[in-house]
Structure formats: C-alpha cells, structure tokens
Amino acid sequence: MIMTPGLRKVALTVHVITSVGWLGAVVGFLALAITSLTSRDAQIVRATSLAMELTAWWVIVPFAFASLLTGLVSSLFTSWGLFRYWWVLVKFLINVFAIIVLMRYMQSLNSMSGMATESMAHASGALLFLLVATTLSVYKPRGMTRYGWRKQHEQRMASIVDDVATSAQPRASEPTSLSESR
Hints:
By secondary structure, this protein is mainly alpha-helical. It contains six helices and no strands.
C-alpha cells in the first residue's frame, strides 16, 4: 500500500523533524560532554553530568526511536521501499546500529558520571553517523539493491503487459465490425 502524496509529505516532515531533533540533541550532548571534560569547576562538572543524563533519556532516546519509526513508515509505505535502494537500506542500518549503541551506552550512563571522555567519544561517533545518514538523504546516491532491480523489472513487465492488453481491446469509438462502420 502506497501513501497518498499528502500523507507522504506529512510522514516525511515528521521524519525530518525527528531526525534533525536527534542530530541537534546529540550536538547539545556533545557540548555538555566537552564542557564537563574541560571544566575545572566541580559544580559545573556535576551539573553537566546531570544535564547529559536528562538530555540522553528525555531527548536523544525518544528522538532516536521516533526517527527509526518514521523512517520505517516512510520507506515501507512509499515507492522508495526499505530494500530497493542502497541509500535507504544504509540509512536504516545506521539508525539501528546507532540505537543499539545508544541503548548500551544508556545502561552504563548512570555508573559513568565523571567519564566525560567516553561520553564525548560516543556523542562524536553518533554525530558522525547522523551526518552520514543526513548526507545520504540529501544526495540519494544511485544504485538499487538486487531486490530493487527485481521489483523494478517486475513493475516494468506488468506495465508492458497492461499496455499490450489495453491496446488489443477495441476503443469505444472504433467500430468492431463492418456493419457498425456503415
């Protein structure tokens, strides 16, 4: 089932918003990690650690899952498909990988307060992955998967069969026999 153009635009808009939100939250988290790492003030380090934990649980995690969900909806219910184009599949895999790493990181976040270096490394890696996914979305490099080629071939063949069947049928305005033409 393919979405209507209006619904597709809504789904795409929500996906872009959640993905950009995730990206922005990671940038904010990275700023907090750098502040925690470079500050010599114990109160600032404690405050940034608390802010990092709140940002991670209440902003990054929800945006990550929302981005995954809206991306799946956008790919499964549009002509892009999830497995037809390499760039869509790579974006999906980046998203899944990033969420797995994020959730593993979240398990250790409480016990790691004071480990700003590891937080900065995770945030930097997440930022890199999200920038790659964003770049893939903008440039949409050519290249279909084998599944995509097969589906495209099947659609073309079905279209040809439909065209042949349609052209073989007499048109309503054309006479079907000699007696009708007189």
